[in-house]
Amino acid sequence: MNPQVPLGESVPPNTRYAVSVSLPMWEDNVDYEKGISRVVDRMVGGYPRFFIARSIQKLVTMVKDRFALPSETAMLFPSLKCAERCVSFIYDQAPKQHSADAEYVLPKPGQVRIVTHVVEPINKKAAALDATADALEAPVTVYCVFFPADLFPLAKQYWQHTGDGISARLADHCLRIARVNEELEQTTGPLSPFGSCGASRRKHGSGYHRAASAVATPS
Questions:
Q1: What's the CA gap between 115 and 80, in Å, rounded?
Q2: Can you tell me the distance from the alpha carbon of 5 to that of 11, in angstroms, rounded to the nearest whole number?
Q3: Fewer Cβ in 10 A, N or C end of the chain?
Q4: Spatial CB neighbours of 38, under 8 Å, sequence gap ≥ 6
Q5: Which residues make Cβ contacts (< 8 Å) with residue 206, sequence separation at least 6?
Q6: Rounded Cα distance, 209 and 182, in Å
Q7: pLDDT at 199 over 60
């Protein structure tokens, strides 16, 4: 009989994209449903609709560092249609939450917005040195939905019920591109301001490059 898989580890163990996680005790399952940090903070993975993969969380942090307002967080999608549906869901469902809880703050027009973010190697010769060279040469477009952080539970409902969010594999791919760019920056110095939108990077060393533009979204 195999030994018990430790709390929070993937099932099977050491499987990067496993969709099951070990919650060995009944109390662990109860605390997971309650969002208790004792359990949640130890989880290395989980079913993608319920658990946002660590690689996706890391990519969200990097995107927020570039584009978010101080009170915002974000969710990432592989297509504009998916992102637009998320925006519509938030604006449609928020009044229902407000009717049940008068203290629930409704989003204002324009507060839920989409940023189109293109990730690509800043130097394809540098990318060619990576083991995944062929894939790294192609740019990747990620559609970022930004919203007030208080609306995260509502946005998470859309993520959970639709499965429209980006995959952990796509997040890892973007992070690999960022790593290649980061390594190049360390040898050549910080990049110039990025893309055609005229925005500048908040912090050097992000490993990102190219265009990012807001997309108008009706409330």
A1: 10
A2: 8
A3: N
A4: 31
A5: 62, 65, 66, 178, 182
A6: 10
A7: no
48-84 confidence digits (pLDDT tens):
678 888 899 999 999 999 999 999 999 999 999 999 9
Output the average pLDDT for the chain: 78
Identify the CA nearest to 83 among candidates 75, 93, 94.
75
pLDDT-above-70 percentage for the chain: 74
Answer yes or no: are the C-beta atoms of 158 and 90 closer than 8 Å. Answer: yes
| Tens-place pLDDT, residues 111-123 | 999 999 988 877 6
Between 152 and 3, the more confident residue is 152
3-class DSSP state of 23: coil
71 vs 133, residue with greater confidence: 71
The stretches of 2-53 forming alpha helices (DSSP H) are 26-34, 37-40
Give 99: exposed, middle or buried? Use CB within 10 Å, 0-12, 13-18, 19+. Answer: exposed
Give bridge partners of residue 143 from the DSSP assignment: 77, 116
Exposed / middle / buried, residue 201 (Cβ in 10 Å: 0-12, 13-18, 19+):
middle
Query: And the tokens for 103?
Result: 């203290």
Place of tokens 């108008």: 216
